């Protein structure tokens, strides 16, 4: 079963926990997911809306929730949350992402690809990114984890702004987006997962938190204005930013290989999100993050190219499920 089909079945199981007939009909599909994928989903068959319960059933339900009734806080209108398990039978422990959002990164991607800046707009975008790069390098030098953690707080902004702008455009114009809204929101979420991963390795100091608040205030508004004025310029700038992200993760990998940075065990969140082997290390994590950045680079240069050639994004299907 393809990953997309598996995702759909998993979603259906979660969204229709009360429909026993429906759930039974697709349980075979669930076992197929388990055979081919990594995770098992256990639907809460027979869970019922509180208002349709008999008093005895309501008592039993209350007993399940505990004497203090605190369990009810985590239920959605009386429907218990789905119980997800990994393939090895251990419970799925992340609320921030679910098994069907995990993936295996394509590390075969070309990490040296570069878009030649030929037009005035491209040169402006490239110059802007280079001007931002040098002070950043000077500030962080070889503090790679800190560098990555703080830059991911910025990297997760453009996808959300672009996705929001295309969403509003779709509503205003009564038209489809060609999947680009979803692709950009996927990018934003993927960047945020990079941040969540680095947070397991290093905690920001108060001064770094203050810096991030200030930078987000400036960058969000600047990128929002750029996207309003020229979406193709905005995507080109992100394409070049992602090229630099690939370069800085390549330097990170070199320092890990040289032993200048300790190659510590991979955080648990990274092992589950990228479906890495349990004995993975920081080097494996940086390798898959670099592959993600290379995909973002390609997606944003592609988005800019479409518009530079006089087309609209919706005319070309977005590379969905790409991250
Ligand atoms: Fe990132
Ligand atoms: Fe990125």
Automatic annotation (TrEMBL):
Its cofactor is Fe cation. Fe cation 1 binds at residues 152, 191, 194, 293. Fe cation 2 binds at residues 191, 242, 293, 296. Keywords: Electron transport, Iron, Membrane, Metal-binding, Mitochondrion, Mitochondrion inner membrane, Oxidoreductase, Respiratory chain, Transit peptide, Transmembrane, Transmembrane helix, Transport. Binds 2 iron ions per subunit. Its EC number is 1.10.3.11. InterPro entries: AOX, AOX_sf. It is a multi-pass membrane protein. PANTHER family: ALTERNATIVE OXIDASE, UBIQUINOL OXIDASE 3, MITOCHONDRIAL. This is Ubiquinol oxidase.
């Amino acid at each position: 079963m393809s990953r997309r089909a598996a995702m759909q079945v998993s979603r259906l199981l979660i969204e229709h926990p009360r429909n026993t007939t429906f759930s039974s009909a697709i349980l075979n599909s669930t076992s197929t997911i388990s055979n081919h994928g990594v995770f098992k989903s256990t639907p809460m068959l027979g869970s019922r809306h509180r208002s349709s319960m008999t008093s005895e059933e309501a008592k039993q339900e209350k007993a399940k929730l505990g004497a203090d009734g605190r369990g009810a806080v985590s239920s959605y209108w009386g429907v218990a949350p789905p119980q997800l398990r990994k393939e090895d039978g251990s419970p799925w422990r992340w609320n921030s992402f679910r098994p069907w959002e995990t993936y295996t990164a394509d590390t075969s991607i070309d990490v040296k690809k570069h878009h030649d800046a030929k037009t005035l707009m491209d040169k402006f975008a490239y110059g802007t990114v280079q001007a931002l790069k040098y002070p950043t390098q000077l500030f962080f030098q070889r503090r790679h984890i800190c560098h990555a953690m703080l830059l991911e707080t910025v990297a997760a902004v453009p996808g959300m702004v672009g996705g929001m702008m295309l969403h509003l455009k779709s509503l205003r114009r009564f038209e489809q987006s060609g999947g680009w809204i979803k692709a950009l929101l996927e990018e934003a979420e993927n960047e945020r997962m990079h941040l969540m991963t680095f947070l397991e390795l290093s905690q920001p100091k108060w001064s770094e938190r203050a810096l991030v608040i200030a930078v987000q205030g400036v960058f969000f508004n600047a990128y929002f204005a750029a996207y309003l004025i020229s979406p193709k310029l905005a995507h080109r700038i992100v394409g070049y930013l992602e090229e630099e992200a690939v370069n800085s993760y390549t330097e990170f990998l070199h320092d890990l290989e040289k032993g200048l940075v300790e190659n510590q065990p991979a955080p648990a969140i990274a092992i589950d999100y990228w479906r890495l082997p349990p004995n993975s290390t920081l080097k494996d994590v940086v390798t898959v993050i670099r592959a993600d950045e290379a995909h973002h680079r390609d997606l944003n240069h592609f988005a800019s190219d479409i518009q530079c050639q006089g087309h609209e994004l919706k005319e070309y299907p977005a590379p969905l499920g790409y991250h």
